[in-house]
Amino acid sequence: MRGTPRAAPGGYAALVQPSDDPRTRRAPAAVTLRDVADRAGVSLATASRVLNGSDRVVRPDLAARVGQAAAELRYVSNGPAQALARARTNVVGLVVHEVDDPYFASIAAGAMRVATEHGLLTMLASTFRDPGREVEYVQRFQAQRVRAVLLAGSGRLAGAAELDRALGEFGDGGGRVALVSERGLPFDTVLPANARGAAQVARLLHDLGHRDVGVVTGPADLRTVADRLGGFLDAWASLGRDRDAVAVAEGDFSRAGGHAATLTLFERHPHLTAVFALNDLMAVGALSALQSDLGRRVPEDVSVVGFDDLWLAADLQPALTTVRLPLEQMGARAMELVLTEAGDAPRRVPVGAELILRASTGPARAA
């Protein structure tokens, strides 16, 4: 009968009668579970438990809000379609920026180890730093009915709405989502201490007497770049130094990018005594530019610091001072998130950073 509440599998009534409010007269096909969750002011997981059924009990007041939102939006679930969508495979999709980048390779290794321990197969995809590919891969994974999607890469500061929508639709269909180093989207996320790690670098260089400092950054629209650069500059300013006096040159998070950016820095600021590269690959390029192209001794003339502590950092000449992130642990923790039931709100898992002092950093040269 029209207007009669229809019982959801979880025991709550999903009200589907039409609303008289003209603002909510939308075609049912255009309304998603995420729309209902947003209208009710609850998490996607809570809305799913109310409307699609779950062993976890939802508070009556939250269940009522979800039911009311479903009624206002005229949300109608498609049982057979949901059953098909939830027939998930034992495959997990893992999306990284560059599969040959040791940073992402280490994260992938940790994630794949946990997946293997749970009898899951990992399907690895590389975006080649094209943000549009992230959305494309999420949609492809949804079509393949993979169990979960992990995005392991720095998010963009703007333009994430389409990715948010794609991940939301993946979650609506029963898939699980976890992110690494992306705090701008409403999903379970592993968050490395990028800003705090960079602040440690600022304090180290300051304590060693460096005042003319340059920073080699990655693309400015990446959240990781904003966090690391911001953490360094904020700490530098807190030490009584002028943050605007710090020289900055942008690369592309690669060895070649670090090499070119370092040459640019010293062309503009030949008296720099220290270079902080926002990842280790760019630090490798900085070392090459300083020693081979510019004839500078490291650390006697110029100190160099990186970030991430990739496996190669200790084997460089000189060995690279850097900020250590537990990369494999980050990947493993992200995989563990999608293998456990989601909470009522997105989980944020902080990961610490440790400054590792090696031979590439020393006291500032005498003026």
UniProtKB/TrEMBL annotation:
Against InterPro entries, the record matches this protein to: HTH_LacI, LacI/GalR-like_sensor, Lambda_DNA-bd_dom_sf, Peripla_BP_I
Q: Which residues form the HTH lacI-type domain?
A: 31-86
Pfam families in the cross-refs: LacI, Peripla_BP_3
Say which domain of life the source belongs to: Bacteria
Q: Which Gene3D superfamilies match?
A: 3.40.50.2300, lambda repressor-like DNA-binding domains (1.10.260.40)
Q: Where is this region: Disordered?
A: 1-26
A GO term, aspect molecular function: DNA-binding transcription factor activity
Q: Per the record's keyword annotation, is Transcription included, yes or no?
A: yes
- Give UniProt keywords alphabetically: DNA-binding, Transcription, Transcription regulation
Name recorded for this polypeptide: Transcriptional regulator, LacI family
Source organism (scientific name):
Geodermatophilus saharensis
